[in-house]
């Protein structure tokens, strides 16, 4: 913190909390988020990956910054992952874009009628989401896809603020994996929902209802295994399993397939 002289700088641990609290909308929140340098290990890793690059992407300029969520500001359904992939979102600048996990997720969203196309290759590829916002509890690519508890907690204000801004329309959320489930529940608590204690355990197909309060509408939470290659290659998560969870989530959120109209806003990637 700048010793009382002004807002924290982007490399200060207080930067996420301050900027999240003072953001008036998702666009402003995302702008602040992409400037964040609060976690030194994650900053060093995301920039190292961008400098060395993978051979297949050696001619590309990597994003190498925190990756914001994307989707319409009136989304009824949030899909929450883990963190950007080093050569996926960290390269393309969009969540779940340019990697195998994203290919699996967006194909499933398309099958349910919540995405305009089954592929997500780069920003500006024409992808639109219907009533869905895709985000994560950690916005920088972590080494070995494993954020530390401190990094997760430092990043939490971004997710809490995003959920609070979505609150007027948000009716359901899907947590992709145990890490997401465990990070999402306290973020929802910080965003104004009443989360039960002890917190329910994660499981594929797990479902939790957060009761409406004076400030927040009822919210349904569903769990799904993460569409990592480790899960999809071994059959722990099949395409049909993910489609089933997303179909139930869409129904709980009040969304219909794009063929009949979702009644929610759209977002171009």
TrEMBL record:
Keywords: 4Fe-4S, DNA damage, DNA repair, Hydrolase, Iron, Iron-sulfur, Metal-binding
Any Pfam family: UDG
Record-linked SUPFAM superfamilies: Uracil-DNA glycosylase-like
InterPro entries, per database record: UDG_Type-4/5, UdgB-like, Uracil-DNA_glycosylase-like, Uracil-DNA_glycosylase-like_sf
CDD domains in the record: UDG-F5_TTUDGB_like
KW Magnesium (keyword) present: no
Top-level taxon of the source organism: Bacteria
Record-annotated Uracil-DNA glycosylase-like domain positions: 68-246
PANTHER family associated with the record: TYPE-5 URACIL-DNA GLYCOSYLASE (PTHR33693:SF3)
Family: Belongs to the uracil-DNA glycosylase (UDG) superfamily. Type 5 (UDGb) family.
Protein name as catalogued: Type-5 uracil-DNA glycosylase
Species for this entry: Streptomyces halobius
């Amino acid at each position: 913190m700048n010793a009382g002289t002004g807002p924290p700088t982007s490399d200060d641990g207080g930067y996420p909390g301050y900027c999240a609290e003072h953001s008036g909308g998702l666009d402003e929140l995302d702008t602040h988020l992409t400037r964040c340098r609060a976690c030194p290990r994650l900053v060093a890793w995301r920039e190292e990956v961008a400098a060395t690059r993978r051979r297949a992407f050696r001619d590309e300029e990597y994003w190498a910054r925190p990756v914001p969520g994307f989707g319409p500001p009136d989304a009824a359904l949030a899909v929450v992952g883990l963190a950007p992939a080093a050569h996926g979102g960290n390269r393309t600048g969009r969540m779940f874009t340019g990697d195998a996990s994203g290919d699996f997720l967006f194909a499933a969203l398309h099958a349910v009628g919540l995405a305009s196309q089954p592929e997500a290759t780069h920003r500006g590829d024409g992808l639109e989401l219907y009533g869905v916002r895709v985000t994560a509890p950690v916005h920088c690519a972590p080494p070995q896809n494993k954020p530390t508890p401190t990094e997760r907690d430092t990043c939490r204000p971004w997710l809490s603020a995003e959920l609070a801004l979505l609150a007027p329309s948000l009716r359901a959320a899907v947590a992709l994996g145990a890490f997401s489930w465990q990070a999402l529940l306290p973020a929802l608590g910080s965003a104004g929902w009443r989360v039960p204690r002890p917190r329910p355990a994660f499981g594929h197909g797990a479902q939790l209802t957060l009761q409406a309060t004076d400030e927040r509408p009822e919210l349904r939470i569903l769990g799904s295994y993460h569409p990592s290659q480790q899960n999809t290659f071994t059959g722990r998560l099949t395409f049909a399993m993910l489609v089933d969870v997303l179909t139930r989530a869409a129904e709980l959120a009040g969304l219909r397939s794009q063929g009949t109209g979702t009644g929610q806003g759209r977002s171009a990637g």
